[in-house]
Structure formats: C-alpha cells, structure tokens
Amino acid sequence: MVFLYLFVLGMLFGLTEAQASDECDKSHNCLTCAGVPYNCASCPKGYYLARGGAYYTCRSCPIACSECEHYMICTKCYLEGRYGQNCQDVCSKGCLDSTCEHSSGTCLCRDNYEGGHCDYCAKGKYDIDSDCVKDCPQNCKTCTSYDKCTECKDGFFGDACEFNCSRGCYLGRCSQMNGTCYQEKCNPNFDGINCTTCFPGFYGTYCQLPCPESCVACSGNTSCDHCQHGHWGSACQHKCSIGCYKSMCLKKTGVCMYSKCRTGFIGEKCDICDLGKHGTYCNMTETLNGNGSSAMKLTGHSSKYTVVIMGITLFSFTFGLIEASCPKRYYLARGGAYYTCRACPIACSECKHYMFCTKCYLEGRYGQSCQDVCSKGCLNSTCEHSSGTCLCRDNYEGGHCDYCAKGKYDIDSDCVKDCPQNCKTCTSYDKCTECKDGFFGDVCEFNCSRGCYLGRCSQMDGTCYQKKCNPNFDGINCTTCSPGLHGSYCQLPCPNNCVACSGNTSCDYCQHGYWGTDCQLNCSIGCYKSSCLKKTGVCMYSKCKTGFIGEKCDICVLGKHGNYCNMTETLNGNGSSAMKLTGHSSKYTVVIMVITLFRLIV
C-alpha cells in the first residue's frame, strides 16, 4: 500500500515539473498569461476570465455555451438553434435555418410561418406540429383546424367561413358569428335585416336600377311584384277605388282587399254607391217621397189597394187583412197606417228590411247588405252569408281563405307561385316570413348547425334555438364537437388524452400536458406551463421553467439536479465544483480529486 502511494505521488510530481516549463500553467485553462503562469490574460473557447483571489483564472462557461462573458451570460451557443443568457431557450421551429437573434430569439421565417419569433402559422395555414403545411378552409384568413376559422376573408361568415355575407352589407363585410352586416349598415339601395333585399323602388343585382313609378318592388323595369299603397296593375299604373277599405286592393285585379268597402260603397271594387247614396264619395243622400220609398206608389180606393211600382201594377190587397207579400228584391214595410213594399239594398235578392239581406243577388257576396265579397280563395266563390267563412280552393288557407297556403305566395296570381325551397311561408321570391326547421336567412338559404338544439335556429342570424346545443356539440353556434368527441353527430369518443380528433386513431389536439400521434406521451415537467408541440414534444413558446434547458426542457442547467432541477450542487469557495490550486513561489501543483483518491486508497 505504501508502495502504491509513493508511485502516485511520484507521477504527480513528474507532471507538475513538466507543466512548470510551459508559458502558461495549463491547469488554469489559460490561453495566454500575464506575469506568472497561473495569472490568465485570455481564455480559450468555452471559458471565461474570472478573478480568483489575487489572480485571474479561466472558468468553464455554462454547458450550452461555446463563448460567454461570465457564468450567467453566454455570447455564443454551443449548439445551433439556441438563444438566451444561458442558451436555455430554443429558436422557434419556424426560424429560417433554425437560427435566431441571440438575445431576443427573433428571426427570419421559413415558408408558412409568421411572427417576430416565427412561432405561429402564416395566414391561411394551420397545424404548427406539421410545419403549418395544412390549408385553412377556403374562405378563412386564419384558422386553428380544418373546421374552425379564427378570422374570415371579407364577404364570408360562419365557424368555417362557409356562408356568404349579403352583397348588400356595408363594405361587403359581416359578423363572423351570425352574418350581421358590418356596423349593422347596408350598402346604398339595400334593405332588410341582413341587407338582402333592395330598397323600395329599386331592383337589379346591386339594387341600382329604379322600378316603374308607383312600384315598391320589381324584378324588371316593366314588371312590378308589389305596388305602392293605393295602386294596382301589372306596372302599378291604376289607382285602387276610393271606396276600398284603407284604399287597398289586389294588384292583379283591383278588387278591394279584405273584401270590405268604406261606408256608402258596394261592389267588388267598391266603385258603386249604395242604394240612396250618390256623389264622388257616395256620401250624398237621395230625396225619398212621403212614405219612404223612392220608386213606389200606392193607388186605390175604399178597402182595396193596388201596388204600382214604376207604373207597373204588381198586386192588390184589401186593407185590414195584411196578407200581402212582396216580389223578390222587395220587403214589406209599414208606411204610416199602411204597409208598402220597399226595395232591398241593390245587392240583395231577398231581404227582411233595408239593412238586412237574407240572400244576395250576385254570387260571391255576403253580409247584412251583401256589401262584402267572398274571398277569391273560396271554393266556387261561395261563402257563408253572415260570416264569409268558406271551404278553400287549392293553394289557399284561413277561415276566409284569404291568404296563401304554406309554401305559396302572390295572392294576385291565385297563390300558384312557390316560395323559396326552404321557406314555410313567404311574401315574395326573396322574402320568407318563416323558415322550415334547420334553415335561416331572408330566403332561408343557410343551414342551421346540425348541433343546434332540436335542429332549429333563429331565422335572423342562425343563433341556435334557446341558445342551446344538442348533446355532445359545442361552440358559438354548436358547430364543433365537445372536447373528446368526434363524428358527424359528435357521438364517438376520441382516444385518451385527446381533446379534438377526426377519428378514433387520429388526434388533432392533445389535452394539456400531452403529445404524440395519439397523445400518449407526457410533456416534460420542465416545459413552461407544461405545454409542448403535439408532434415533437418540443416545449411551446421555446421556453423552459427555471432550472431546465433543452428543446424539451428535460435537462437540468449547470449546477442543478433532481427531478425538478431545483437542487443545487455544492461549490467550493472560488465557485468551482472540482478544482483547487495549491503551491508556493514559482512552482505550483494542480490537485484535482487526488486528495480524496489518496484517502480512499490509504
């Protein structure tokens, strides 16, 4: 044992003698020295000049540095693609040639990447795990997946920007969520909730052409769809009769709406004055003779009387018997001490008195004075005498058959025009008043999300019915699956640890803290916020928690160890963990881990 001790000591002695002859003492790692062999003037790569007592020595840079200023500031990293004071951070995978500015990490970007650090996908691309090579849906500016856009191109809206904004929207732009026009404004000459119809009096692709005079809505310069109030005709060139109730009449025929006339008027078009009335407004009364009849005269003597009307002898009766009757269109009325026959209202064929018809002279009339017209939708143009209710012809509905059946429009044309495909009811070819379940929009041209509760949504903006989703659906308009589910109806489970997937073996997004094809691997505990890229496991933000370095932040920095890299190695007095300088005058000996070795041997 003593022999071995002497042998090792002799070897060390011989080594120090050899070093003493060099320009610098190599044990100090000096590149050049000043004054004495152990006073370093400069250091080789991987070392920095540090004061150690009265002299300077060269100490090792942090493990990731090739050049440094001191133990906390690297000036150049040993490995390409690193940056930061201790080279602890990784340049983004989007950086050109995997290089970035040393202090900030900013860089020039590869194709398909953007941002100061090139750490997110360029517009129109997604999936940073796959080098952002996947294209967003056609009308997206930016997206996070194949069915989720974060910003639409101008003119589109919806979760995947699948719907067109109305061309009438101001600047052609609309809300991505519901298609509401930008600033809720329309372009000139457009109107409607979502600016899908032309302003009254205009037509054309861009609503730039004027309709004919008195025309509210048209599809050409000679064809009116709707007339201004009080007009009718193919080009709205006629005025409704002043006798029409509210001055409204059917566009095609001029027949008064509601089959109702103003007081003093009768007729389909309310253009005839009632019995005993005359004048432009049928408000002037005729003068009657003494017995209240305008065309009847009683002649006779003693107890026998003859009824003469307009010079025609109709019948005779004996006073006191009162067994007389009147012909059709007349009614028996008392005139003083006697009875006489007075004319029914002009539209009656039978009546009880001057205000109550029991049968109308013309088919298709009803009411006390037969002043009302049965709706044109009534079967065989007949209706119940007192109320006007009737059985309906094809394409009509309602108690009076006075509006179009569901799916039909244009009462002027016998309701033969079909509403747009997905409408229940409509008023024209471009205005639905109620959509079939599953559709929305001015002409029900958009599909509600299949995730909407009961498959229904607001006709105005597509918001799901009661703002509720069907089971397993999620998102603003219930267009995406709830986390962990996939399938047409979001009924199938994703693999474990998978947030979003397109099949049971293909994950698009992992739960927080996981990565891998099927999200089967854990991100390193050293990753900042425990987040890492799904494809590679490289930490997100190119940032590690304190104490960690490496792309995956799975290596402890120099001087740290333990599962969480939070345990510190013990250093000796000069800050070096394994170096000690001993000696005297001009001769020095480097002793590294030798004393301990000797103790173990002895």
Q: What's the quick description here?
A:
The chain is mainly β and 602 residues long. It contains two helices and 59 strands.
* Helix percentage range: under 10%
The N- and C-terminal alpha carbons lie at a distance of 7 Å
Strand order of the largest sheet: 29-30-31
- Give the low-confidence spans: 1-22, 287-323, 571-602
Broad structural category = mainly beta
Please, how many helices? 2
- What is the total tally of β strands? 59
Indicate the mean pLDDT.
78
Global geometry: rod-shaped
Description:
The chain is mainly beta and 602 residues long. Helix content is 4%, strand content 32%. A 3-stranded antiparallel β-sheet has the order 29-30-31, with no helix packed on it. Strands 1-2 form a two-stranded antiparallel ribbon. The longest helix has 18 residues, at 2-19. It is rod-shaped, with a radius of gyration of 50 Å.
